[in-house]
Amino acid sequence: MSMSILLPTNLQQCPSPSFSPSTPLLSPSPSTAFSLVGTSRRCLRLVTCCVSSVQSSVANGSAPAAVIVERDQIRLGLPSKGRMAADSVDLLKDCQLFVKQVNPRQYVAQIPQLPNTEVWFQRPKDIVRKLLSGDLDLGIVGLDTLCEYGQENEDLIIVHEALNFGDCHLSIAIPNYGIFENINSLKELADMPQWSEERPLRVATGFTYLGPKFMEENGINHVTFSTADGALEAAPAMGIADAILDLVSSGTTLKENNLKEIEGGVVLESQAALVASRRALTDRKGALKTVHEILERLEAHLKADGQFTVVANMRGNSAQEVAERVFESTIIVRIAEQGPTISPVYCTQNGKVSIDYYAIVICVPKKALYESVKQLRAVGGSGVLVSPLTYIFDEDTPRWGQLMRNLNL
Ligand SMILES: Nc1ncnc2c1ncn2[C@@H]1O[C@H](COP(=O)(O)OP(=O)(O)OP(=O)(O)O)[C@@H](O)[C@H]1O
Ligand SMILES: O=P(O)(O)OC[C@H]1O[C@H](OP(=O)(O)OP(=O)(O)O)[C@H](O)[C@@H]1O
Ligand SMILES: [Mg+2]
């Protein structure tokens, strides 16, 4: 049984492809771009199609423009349940920001380290809606949720786009059997002779904003959408849909349901992001200060993640001579952004202070750790100590500068 719902009248003005969301739509508004602060190899690879952005109602997407209501506290929205919930609190904990929730059913919490900030636990999609309505100032959500429910509203600013958890991608998948057996790309899918106005490609998805937009951008016109709250992978085998558009992380669910991804079918790459309301940052007293502090802690922690400090002692006549020996090691030359730091180790013998050794300190990423230790030893390093790095505070927080530029501050 198809879940398609008849289109509301105002939606019929919408260019094809058609879709059948469960909620009515408001009038079209001009498309505006997300403010993507920060750069990352994973950063939002979102369709840039120019479908006139149809903003859906509060029930499905963005709420009306935010109104700044007077309040003393800055509000940070964290996922109340689901995959992102525990990881969000854990990430803040790793940044020495301890979320104090009295019990799991209480939806408000405090962070003693940020006395002017209160945490509100909400479903991820509601975090986006509440950022737009002005009921939250900051939030942690997946980029997929942000794009789907934020619908490119320019009030949403991505402050940190790569929080290093919640990795997944939004992708089209089709059966690996029957008429799809030899179809391996979006183009091949689009070119199949089966699809016509009378018999469009049927796609099941929870992403009723991003799905049609992606299809439109890729020139796939004979397509229709149906929606469900979960277990979408069952739709093709049940005869409800030809394809699905859903989140994929390990790929197990697709495999177990005889579905496959296709070339060109990835709509966006997603992971958890820190998002803010532009209006809150510009108009709410204390919001920028809070963001700066959270961002500094996040950047310092995430930069240090997977990095180790390696300390070794090396015999030598001078720091210069030891440095020359260390730089014989190709891996150290390659990994050392700055440094190594080489400092004298002072010893006393018979009341006389002497320098026979020098201590070398380098920062090494996990994957280069063993090789660096081996090379340090090969050039005379001994007593090698390795400890994980907790924070790397740079002179400046790069994303802060970008945020300031984005806000024209
Ligand atoms: N395999 C995955 N499937 C779904 N989401 C994932 C996956 N891996 C990471 N995520 C991220 O986790 C977010 C929350 O997913 P989750 O299914 O827990 O949400 P939810 O709030 O329970 O929503 P729903 O109940 O509608 O599924 C997603 O929006 C996405 O950013
Ligand atoms: O690639 P995988 O690691 O297999 O993960 C992908 C699956 O996980 C999500 O479903 P979820 O577990 O949230 O269940 P749902 O269908 O009820 O949303 C998503 O909707 C996919 O079905
Ligand atoms: Mg889910």
From TrEMBL:
Keyword Lipid metabolism: no
Domain ATP phosphoribosyltransferase catalytic as annotated: residue spans: 123-299
Keywords noted in UniProt: Amino-acid biosynthesis, Histidine biosynthesis, Transferase
UniProt cross-references to InterPro entries, sorted A to Z: ATP_PRibTrfase_cat, ATP_PRibTrfase_CS, ATP_PRibTrfase_HisG, HisG_C, N-reg_PII-like_a/b, N-reg_PII/ATP_PRibTrfase_C
EC number, UniProt record: 2.4.2.17
Pathway annotation from the record: Amino-acid biosynthesis; L-histidine biosynthesis; L-histidine from 5-phospho-alpha-D-ribose 1-diphosphate: step 1/9
Protein name: ATP phosphoribosyltransferase
Organism: Brassica napus (Rape)
Catalysis: reaction(s): 1-(5-phospho-beta-D-ribosyl)-ATP + diphosphate = 5-phospho-alpha-D-ribose 1-diphosphate + ATP
Domain Histidine biosynthesis HisG C-terminal: from-to ranges: 304-390
